[in-house]
Amino acid sequence: MDYEAVIGLEVHAELSTRTKMFCACTVTDPAKSEPNSAVCPVCLGLPGTLPVINRQAVELGLRVALALGCTPLPRSIFARKNYFYPDLPKGYQISQYETPLAVNGKFTIRTVAGEKVIRIRRVHLEEDTGKLTHITQPQAYSLVDLNRAGVPLLEIVSEPDLCNPAEARAYAVKLQQLLRAIEASSADMEKGQIRFEANISLRPRGSQLLGTRTEIKNLNSFRSMERAITYEMQRQQEVLLSGGLVEQQTVGWNEDTGVTFPQRGKEEAHDYRYFPDPDLPPLVVDSAWLDRIRREMPDLPEERIRQFQQKYSVPLELAEQILADPWLEQFFLGCTSDILLAEETARWLIGPLAGELNARGIGWEANPLAPTNMADLLARLQTGSINQPMAKQLLKWMLDTGKNPEEIIAREGMVQVSDVDSLKTTIQAVLHAHPAEVSAYRKGKVSLAQWFFGQVMADTRGQADPKIVKMLLDELLTALMGGQLSD
């Protein structure tokens, strides 16, 4: 039996508001604030307190809804979603369900098969929970931080239109770009500002019936999401092929072991006993309010990418990657004074610099390199005063020391050697020092030409001009063959 996957994503994004969803507590950075320091009687759920809707959160939610082509409902209802966990102070979460903020949108992604439209079922507002930290040694216990409790969340629920992990990733990546572009959410995964939940089922290929689904909770990276979906698809297939039945349940993802694990039976809406929150009036959105939000809407990603390409003449893939991260975009703009070098700059940022930062575990927001120093390095590379290997080594030293290119070049004596006579002497010395390899080359092992090139570059500490080295090496090797080989 051949099975196909049916995947829907629920995306939770923290909205970029100054205060929480239903109270005046400040939204804090979890890495910088003391636990339980940004709380009040309202977000603690103390008796007698009354919630008040955050207008800024509503406007940001409507901005996202409009960007996704959704239809905002003129009247939406906040409901109580009843369930108990230690990180939910009230014993219920204020959310929206039957009458959400907006419905029926669509979102176009690019796949290997071309463009694909993913339908958006609904967009709704709710409050976040607190955060639990589980301690296992020397004894097991959990700590609760309620700073996050009550932070505004926007949940974006897709229809089950995704078919594989790659499509799910493409959808999630583009949605993150959209949230950032319209300034609705920073969507920083490392800070938990955007989280994914994947609903997955399998069915016989070609069937229109939906299989029994499982939901993978709280995936906080694109890589984790892809891995978790891939594993869960394989697990369900093994169950079905063995004649078993997939159990409807909520599962977690263990990044270390690479497997999903059962958490609880999958709830249906009635399990949460939704009912309208008696302390909150219906949210009414009139046409004048929507018109103002439309007028103030920042450019959508497609328009920003188009403008970026038009200005800098870079390929689409590079433009998308540069604009995907606001910190990377700002760094690019800071080191791109010469528009003619824009594509080369983009390739260096996405390639060597990103690689070095990843190796050091540094994100773009913490990039220690000054844009002016990166621009200086690329200018020297362009003029030929340094070559590619030297530039890559220089980049490493710049990140290690914080010094500018001029200081490091002076310290290390990094000057590209372009003198023909000097390089010819070096090449002759290399050939003289390796008679066995020269003999093998003369017998037809022409691949050794690249090996000789590497030896010359190593002997010159990578400072030789590669173009001149290649030209001279070709001439000398051709002479060794008695003119039998041509360029």
What this model shows, in words?
The structure is a single chain. The longest helix has 20 residues, at 222-241. The protein is elongated and about 95 Å long. By secondary structure, it is α+β, with helices and mostly antiparallel strands. It has a nine-stranded mixed sheet. A three-stranded antiparallel sheet has the order 5-4-15, with no helix packed on it. Residues 483-487 have low confidence and may be disordered. Helices cover 39% and strands 20% of the residues. It folds into three domains: 3-289, no CATH class; 301-412, no CATH class; 420-480, Arc Repressor Mutant, subunit A, CATH 1.10.10. A hairpin with a 4-residue loop joins strand 13 (249-254) and strand 14 (259-265). It has helices at residues 55-67, 165-181, 222-241, 287-295, 301-312, 316-323, 326-334, 342-359, 371-383, 388-401, 405-412, 420-433, 435-442, 448-459, 466-480, and strands at 3-14, 71-72, 75-76, 79-82, 92-95, 102-111, 114-127, 131-135, 141-145, 152-158, 194-204, 214-219, 249-254, 259-265, 275-276, 283-284.
From the N-terminal CA to the C-terminal CA, the straight-line distance is 57 Å
Considering DSSP H and I runs of 4 or more, what fraction of the residues is helical? 25-40%
Number of helices: 15
Number of strands: 16
- Give me the side-by-side strand order of the main sheet: 2-6-7-10-1-11-12-13-14
Structural class: alpha+beta
Q: Beta fraction of the residues? A: 15-25%
Question: Uncertain spans, ≥5 residues at pLDDT below 50?
Answer: 483-487
